[in-house]
Specification:
- By secondary structure, the chain is of the alpha/beta class.
- It has 9 helices and 8 strands.
- The chain has a 4-stranded parallel beta sheet with strand order 2-1-3-4, sandwiched between helices.
- 35% of the residues are buried.
Length: 256
């Protein structure tokens, strides 16, 4: 065998590369949430391509902005001005670079209407829009929504308040909301592998009557690998699937 002739597999990187629309992720609340969303985008892309996935060039192009100022969103009712200023600048920085983008934070999606009013060319993939479409497809009637305090209360600071007409939400009592809020803070501070976090989450799930539980906080999927009888819906996964939709993967897979 001639050692100077590389095996055919070495040509994979050069064969049939087609640039796809770029997508963007804004993160920082917290940084791991962006990593989680990006990972899910890559996995979903690979899953859809199946045997057609050959090389790095078959992965989607992703622009990431990680902004620590967005971490102020946990107390959004007191930090609105600072958070909006940072988020607007981040979205404008992506504009012109990506076809679509998502914010890897359920809470920050409350600003979706304001972002849409900016008239940017990049399309915002709204967590509320994606979840609303999912609930309609599934025909869900009653669910529990778990998220940061401002999100779980389904009031003025929750991006999901618009879904009250779609499904009946089982509310957590005040103690449950505060317990959940602290759990989210602890995931941020100590990391998802910190001892006791999953036990605390399991205990909280045990207090919920609904069979379907929406993980409407990007920290919660990081500790959701536990035994439970509940049907856990990872909203981040739904958004990852919507982002992959924006990369025109169907056209590539069809050989167009």
């Amino acid at each position: 065998m001639n050692a100077s002739v590389p095996p055919p597999s070495s040509d994979i990187a050069l064969a049939g590369y087609v640039a796809r629309p770029r997508i963007g992720i804004i993160t920082g609340s917290g940084p791991e949430a962006g990593v989680d969303l990006w990972t899910k985008v890559l996995r979903e892309n690979r899953r859809r391509m199946g045997a057609q996935f050959r090389h790095d060039t078959d992965a989607p192009a992703v622009d990431i902005i990680s902004d620590p100022a967005l971490g102020l969103s946990m107390e959004l009712d007191r930090t609105e001005s600072e958070v909006w200023s940072a988020l607007r600048a981040d979205a404008e920085a992506l504009d012109g670079r990506v076809a679509a983008y998502a914010i890897a934070c359920n809470t920050l999606n409350v600003f979706a209407p304001r972002l849409n009013e900016l008239g940017l060319t990049a399309r915002l993939i709204s967590f509320a829009d994606v979840l609303g479409a999912y609930l309609r497809r599934r025909g869900a009637t009653r669910v529990s929504l778990l998220g940061a305090r401002t999100v779980a209360e389904l009031g003025a600071w929750s991006p999901y308040r618009c879904l009250r007409s779609v499904v009946d939400f089982e509310p957590l009592d005040e103690s449950g909301r505060m317990t959940l809020h602290q759990l989210i803070y602890d995931v941020k501070q100590y990391g998802a592998e910190h001892p006791g976090l999953r036990d605390r989450f399991a205990s909280l799930l045990g207090r919920i009557q609904s069979d379907t539980v929406l993980l409407a906080c990007t920290e919660l999927p990081l500790i959701a690998d536990l035994e439970t009888t509940k049907y856990l819906v990872d909203v981040t996964q739904l958004v990852a699937e919507a982002l992959v939709d924006c990369t025109d993967l169907a056209a590539i897979s069809d050989g167009s």
